[in-house]
Amino acid sequence: MLAVRSGRKMLVTTGAILAVGALVTGCSSDGGEGSAQPTNATVDGNAETGENVVIGFSGPAADHGWLGAINSAAISEGDAYDDVELRVAEGTNDANLQISQVEQFINDGVDAIVLLPTDGTALTSVATKAMEAGIPVVNVDREFSSPAAARTTILGDNYGMGQSAGQYICERLGDQPDAVVAEIAGIDSLPLTTDRSEGFADALETCGLDVDNRVAADFTVAGGEEAASQLLSAAPEIDAIWNHDDDQGHGVLAAIDSADRDEFFMVGGAGSANAMELIKSGESVLEATVLYPSTQAADGVRLARLIAQNKAMSDLVEVEVPKRIVLNAPVVTEENVDEYLPTAFSS
User: Fold this and answer.
1) Which CATH architecture has domain 2-155+294-316?
2) What pLDDT was estimated at residue 167?
3) Coiled-coil intervals in this record (predicted)?
4) Which residues, in sequence order, are CB contacts of 294 under 8 Å at separation 6+?
5) What is the dihedral of CA 116, 74, 304, 291, to 10 degrees?
6) Would you say residue 19 has pLDDT above 60?
């Protein structure tokens, strides 16, 4: 099912890296190098109503707080523009259904497609088909297996998340070589989990620490509670815990409360509003969280509009929208939490 949403007057929205800037894009409608005349890209120029464009958006089912925020932010971004008609496919975790949704967008002749694939490899072929049909594809979060499948890719930084968490723990415990560090990962079979764990281990190594106890959960509250209970039983003393995901963090914190443990501090992941409120209170073992922006699809919609209208990112001298953008993974603490709360998602 497709829902059609028409844009309204532009609002200032959440796009961590898409602020403003200088020149133009020489993209043709197929997302490649073409003969389209560049259009000056400025803050005001990009914001002004331009040529009407139809953008198709398809993402996974919103069965997780972060994914729900991804979808709602994308829809809000489409609504922010008078010149955008955003056609939203029903969220799904079925790769075959998502392929059919993209094929429908191709048949409809949309001007651009924003796609957060349930499986990047499985969606590569149909995304390539769209590109070959002259429809630029903006790939969000989960990469395709071929660079030819997307005009632009926008990603969170999973390895960087691990690095940021490890660096924060090093700052807190780097002068304690015997400190016990634990890790509660997400789903171990996912590449993103591998990247997060590798970044974490590499950062800890710089200050002589390592992961002493590690368990994996499944990004759910129940899974987080079960994994944390297992961890706490196996490790009678812990100095710091990094939990990869704030949604499963609800369960992790429940297990910590049940075990009546508070000798350690915890760092979360993703950046939910719930986690940030706990951090702000200063009354929880949760001391920080590492941001994994839930604005990625919204940024994808904004990028798709710029590409379809032959515009550029106005803070860049480059005359086209970049091929690949990786968002930052900052650490949110009590000191800077108010800066990040407005764009945080509810879990």
Assistant:
1) 3-Layer(aba) Sandwich (3.40)
2) 98
3) none
4) 66, 69, 70, 73, 270, 271, 343, 344, 345
5) -70
6) no
